[in-house]
Amino acid sequence: MVLEETARRDKIAEGEQQVSRISGAFSSEDQLVTGNIFDIRRFSIHDGPGVRTTVFFKGCPLRCWWCHNPEGQVGRPERIFRDNRCLRCQACVVACKQGAIRLDGDQIITDDEKCTLCGACVETCYAEARQIVGREMTTAQVISEIERDIAFYDESAGGVTLSGGEPLMQSDYLHELLLACADRGIHTALDTCGFACWETFDWIRPHVDLFLYDLKLIDQDRHQKFTGASNIRILENLKRLSEHGHNINLRVPVIPGINDDTGNIRAVAAFAVGLPCLNQVDILPYHTAAISKYERMHRTYRVSELHPPSPERIAEITQTFEEFGLQVRVGG
């Protein structure tokens, strides 16, 4: 009887292991690993090779004047209000149990101190004028979204891009996602501004297949002015990643009047050509798509007067990089 009971338990255990392998189930500990994500964009073709799923992390150490993802700057969930959609129906006023919303004349006013971001106003808003950006997601939840597109990754040599914000600010969560992707044979790209301690890079770098590394300005004072942080750590980390032989695409945003001058472009090219390992330089022309985001978030867009660079200027910048012997591509 003892032998039969032992055999029965062994079969049950074997069956549970098979179910776990087939479903890619996570342990209860993995389920508790959470991060703050503000978007998961499927079928992306501008965030690395092939068809990709881009996961956007919330929180960034920089405050670039031209930032295209202001919703990714702050590490906590935030409220967005689209005034042009609001019907002034006051359904949100009724739904808010904290009394944080009121109608003042023809304006809907929200008291930030009273608002708890519970989401009741979002759920009841018929016009979809209200939105909460950012939510806590477990590693398992994100991987579940990613796994839906594995067939597209296989067909296009694509994969997952972890972007933001800055994913390195949630390093534990980032590490877990990278490991989960590796377990499933999914190609990973990390889109990073490079501002982190080397110990963090050293921890995650074995699990990253491609680094999409931003480099905006070489001059330290200008970098401090336009991004709010020094570039010393950014340049050092880039050098060390390259010395370790990692796959790196250098991404250079072209912001008119800020970093598109010949001096900076040549300085970036000179730095890039000195790296021992670099795949290519991606030139990213400035665009104005973020202006409406700042309006919805009631933030000041510091470069609202800027216009995208002309095709002629982009061609000149491309030529400069090519003269240094670098492989260049326009676009991400």
How would you describe what is shown here?
With 332 residues, this protein is α/β, with parallel strands linked by helices. The chain is built from 13 helices and 13 strands. The strands form three sheets. A nine-stranded mixed beta sheet has the order 7-1-2-8-9-10-11-12-13. Strands 3-6 form a two-stranded antiparallel sheet. A two-stranded antiparallel ribbon has the order 4-5. Residues 1-29 have low confidence and may be disordered.
Summarize the structure.
The protein is an alpha/beta fold.
Write a concise keyword list for the protein shown above.
332 residues, alpha/beta, TIM Barrel, Alpha-Beta Plaits, 2 domains, two-stranded antiparallel ribbon, globular
Largest sheet: 9 strands, mixed
Low-confidence stretches: 1-29
For this structure, what is the CATH class of the largest domain?
Alpha Beta
For the record, give the distance between the C-alpha atoms at the N and C termini, rounded to a whole number: 66 Å
Look at the helices and sheets and give the structural class: alpha/beta
The best one-word shape is: globular
Annotate the secondary structure layout.
Layout: H1 2-23, H2 28-31, E1 34-44, E2 52-57, E3 78-81, H3 91-95, E4 101-104, E5 107-110, H4 120-124, E6 130-133, E7 135-138, H5 139-147, H6 150-156, E8 159-163, H7 171-183, E9 187-192, H8 198-204, E10 210-214, H9 220-227, H10 232-243, E11 248-254, H11 262-273, E12 280-285, H12 291-296, H13 311-323, E13 328-330
Parallel strand pairs: 2-8, 8-9, 9-10, 10-11, 11-12, 12-13
Antiparallel strand pairs: 1-2, 1-7, 3-6, 4-5
